[in-house]
Amino acid sequence: MTIDLIKYRKLVVIAAIVAGLDQTSKYIVQKNLDLYHSVPVIPGFFNLTHILNPGGAFGFFANQSPEVRSFVFIFVSFLALGFILYFYKNTPDTHKMLASGFALIFGGAVGNMIDRIRFGTVVDFLDVYIRNMHWPAFNIADSAISIGMAIFIYHILAKKMPMDD
């Protein structure tokens, strides 16, 4: 097996695990928790709350028409997936953590894009808060994207860019 196939197998495996966990968790929430209802997990800090997010991160574009949102977010998702594949392809084999970060971003983008295609919105359910200050609800795909971006930013700050070497 060539190195490229091994490299892309890693992308597919990590992305499939992320998207699979994301979609499975969202299915469980949709089947077991009514929309806008919460179940306290850690009182005063963390709930499972079934929410639909029609916008992007932090509700971005939430006030646009469903048609505009759908077009913009699906188009941007495909564009982002293309960029991630480009960066992944050009990541040297010596940057395994960076490659894993790109795979996490890819899997998260796929997970949320599946929701947008199926429902026109994204299912969120992880609700972190302190008293009445709530972080915007999120999901496993969002978490994977955030972790992947943190790895990418670390590499930028450490001057370990994908094209180095």
Summarize this entry quickly.
This protein has four helices and four strands; from the N terminus they run H-E-E-H-H-E-E-H.
Describe, in plain words, how this protein is organized in 3D:
With 165 residues, the chain is of the alpha+beta class. It has one domain. Helix content is 58%, strand content 15%. The protein has helices spanning 3-32, 66-89, 96-119, 140-157, and strands spanning 38-42, 46-53, 122-130, 133-134. A 4-stranded antiparallel β-sheet has the order 1-2-3-4.
Strand order of the largest sheet: 1-2-3-4
The helix content, as a percent range, equals: 55-70%
Helix/strand/pairing category: alpha+beta
Our Rg estimate from Cα atoms comes to 17 Å
Give the count of structural domains: 1
Strand content: 5-15%
* Straight-line distance between termini: 24 Å
How many strand units? 4
Task: Summarize the main sheet.
Answer: 4 strands, antiparallel
Uncertain parts: none
Quick one: overall form?
Answer: globular
Mean pLDDT over all positions: 90
Count up the helices: 4
Order of helices and strands: HEEHHEEH
